[in-house]
Write a structure and sequence with these properties.
By secondary structure, the protein is α+β, with helices and mostly antiparallel strands. The protein contains 12 helices and 31 strands. Strands 17, 18, 20, 23, 24, 25, 27, 28 and 31 form a 9-stranded mixed β-sheet that branches. α1 (3-17) packs across α2 (54-72), α7 (464-472) crosses α12 (619-632) and α8 (492-502) crosses α9 (525-534). It is globular, with a radius of gyration of 32 Å. The termini are far apart.
């Protein structure tokens, strides 16, 4: 057989074995030629074997040998640095990494890859790098590539995008394009069995000739293919092609234009007596971390699918994997679990606390939903653990607010391991998104509860929602006559009392404060003792607290700022700095606190673009600031 025929056979055979879009019921392969062996076979992907004759196998072996010889005839320097982006939005990588049949991927051309459209029916195709369009085929050809575009990147590489949708190509020959620019829409023109992108990168000193060889886009782009899930195989004689199905093999990697999310879909390791167990694979997490961009860190999401009649879900993470997640602070902000009925998000601080508590043991997170209760737990082989006080752990559960009820009067209640019930003050009912969020405390059952407190003088008042939120949680109370009196000024003693209730502090544990104007039999004495003992308030002087004096707006900001520090809460930056017209009136000791509380969205100015730092704060203003402070922690 002539060498040219062998080369032709190589390309034709590879085309015959190209899987197109995975998930089709069967692969059908037929060809005939005077100069090659006829092949005919039908097989079902993932089931059984596909048997070829010895002659057919010999022809395929010869085709690969011929291709290896072809590659040797063209010398190309790999010294050129080229890191292209991902060519399709919200897409999945379908076919395997390597072209050798011993590795599995028999796809044509060698090193070309197929990319599916993810959850959408189609998606935009993007230029992987800056370049010039040198070829466009938009005649809806029935030939192999169908509609396709070739872009020269002026560095020895060209990229090819095939099977594009009819009338979707938006570039022409000679156009210059930028990385990430939309050039077409994913389609299924040409020799294609379903919507997908056939993508190639070719290396050539002269892009207008066919004197080139293909480069593996995955290697060039430093993409990381997710290898931690189940595979399916089809046997071609003595060879096995292994691939990851569209529903299991989600593509993970980094590029200049792809939207990459740190998330893994877990597969059960075992199921027994209704307990579904999952083991997080360390190699998978390592590969994903290496592939993520170093910007805007997000929590690593571990997702499981609800199993009918499941009693409990258990997800185990090794101490080594937990260490990797904590260390990857440039790309990961923590860990998140999605079981379908709840979402639990743990920040890096909380993970550090779990690491300390686990003492090198593997950690298992377990979840259960029974009637109205949501049950959470974290354990090692030695017993239950938690990291309360180390960082933030937020749980989210679905909840549809009943008509006519107040979301601010909706809260979460927990039942501890000792059977005692307690209120979770730091909880929020998000009526729009039909969820309730709350800070996870310990090994307990949680459920949604309701407690509405109505004051006749706050109906339709500007701060009604904040007053309702705090009153429901027992943080703020009304007057003896049943009103709230929202415009009444707040005293310094009343302010530290409110903060102690937010902290759920046991004020009896604190020593007497040194203030001569705070009698220890006064109603506010325990709260002032607590404020002094924690460093939240040092008084007007070393001996004077001035409990009955009205608390100023700048003092209120300072107390909240110090309170955040005491409980280990970092105030977020949610809004831009406001330039108050009376900024010069803010005392030096209060400037940092006012700025931080303002940028956290907790406090704003009064009418006329003034902060009024020395003006007395009202009960309603205090309610707003404290309510927004609590909600910001969830």
């Amino acid at each position: 057989m002539k060498k040219s025929a062998l080369i032709l056979l190589a390309l034709v055979v590879l085309c015959l074995f190209s899987p197109g879009v995975l998930g089709q019921e069967a692969i059908e392969m037929t060809t005939a030629s005077d100069d090659m062996v006829a092949l005919s076979a039908v097989g079902v992907e993932g089931e059984g074997e596909m048997i070829l004759s010895d002659e057919a196998l010999a022809a395929i072996e010869a085709s690969f040998a011929a291709y290896e010889e072809l590659k040797k005839t063209y010398a190309f320097s790999d010294a050129v640095s080229f890191v292209p982006g991902w060519p399709a939005e919200n897409s999945y990588y379908l076919n395997g990494l390597d072209y050798y049949p011993t590795s599995g991927n028999v796809h044509s051309p060698i090193y070309a890859i197929d990319i599916g459209p993810g959850s959408q029916t189609c998606c935009n195709i993007l230029a992987v790098a800056d370049g010039t369009v040198i070829y466009v085929s938009d005649i809806d050809s029935a030939l192999s590539y169908g509609n396709y575009v070739i872009i020269d990147h002026d560095n020895g590489y060209v990229s090819l995008y095939a099977h594009l949708a009819p009338d979707s190509i938006r570039v022409g020959v000679g156009d210059t394009v930028s990385q990430g620019e939309k050039i077409a829409v994913m389609g299924t023109t040409g020799n294609s069995t379903g919507v997908h992108l056939h993508f190639e990168i070719r290396a050539s000193d002269d892009p207008y000739t066919f004197d080139f060889y293909w480069k593996n886009p995955l290697l060039l782009s430093k993409f990381c293919f997710y290898k931690g899930l189940e595979t399916k195989s089809v046997r071609y004689g003595a060879w096995i092609r292994t691939y990851y199905t569209k529903d299991l093999g989600k593509y993970y990697g980094y590029s200049g234009n792809a939207v990459i999310s740190p998330e893994l879909d877990l597969t059960p390791a075992s199921e027994k007596n209704g307990i579904i167990k999952y083991q997080v694979d360390d190699a998978t997490v390592t590969g994903l971390i290496a592939a993520l961009p170093n910007s805007d860190p997000e929590p690593l999401l571990l997702r499981v699918t609800e199993v009918e009649d499941a009693y409990r879900y258990e997800i185990t993470i090794s101490a080594q994997t937990l260490e990797r997640i904590i260390a990857a602070k440039s790309v990961l902000s923590g860990l998140q679990f999605d079981t379908g009925f709840t979402l639990l998000t743990l920040d890096r601080g909380y993970l550090c606390g779990l690491k300390a508590a686990a003492k090198g043991e593997n950690i298992t997170f377990y979840f259960r939903h029974a009637d109205k209760y949501y049950i959470y737990g974290i354990k090692t082989a030695s017993g239950e653990i938690n990291a309360e006080g180390w960082g933030k752990a937020v749980a989210t559960i679905p909840y549809c607010l009943p008509e006519g009820t107040d979301p601010n009067a909706t809260y979460v209640r927990g039942i501890g391991s000792d059977g005692a019930s307690f209120m979770v003050q730091d909880s929020i009912c998000d009526a729009e998104n039909k969820v309730v969020r709350f800070n996870y405390k310990d090994v307990v059952k949680y459920f949604v509860d309701y407690h509405e407190v109505v004051y006749p003088d706050v109906e339709n008042f500007w701060g009604e929602c904040y007053i309702s939120y705090l009153s429901c949680r027992g943080i703020i109370q009304g007057m003896e006559d049943g009103t709230f009196s929202p415009s009444t000024k707040l005293t310094r003693a009343q302010m530290v009392t409110l903060l102690s209730r937010v902290a759920a502090a046991d004020c009896t544990l604190y020593e007497e404060c040194p203030f001569t104007d705070v009698p220890q039999d006064a109603w506010y004495a325990p709260y002032v003792n607590w404020a002094y003992g924690t460093g939240i308030s040092q008084g007007r002087t070393a001996e004077i607290f001035d409990p009955d004096a009205l608390v100023s707006r700048q003092e209120m900001a300072v107390l909240l700022y110090r309170f955040a520090d005491v409980i280990g809460y970092t105030l977020p930056v949610l809004v831009e700095t406001l330039d108050f017209g009376d900024d010069d009136q803010i005392s030096a000791y209060a400037k940092e606190a006012v700025l931080s509380v303002q940028k956290a969205g907790i406090i704003s100015g009064r009418t006329g673009n003034v902060f009024d730092p020395k003006g007395a704060a009202t009960r309603c203003e205090a309610a707003k600031m404290i309510a927004m402070f609590i909600q910001g922690m969830v």
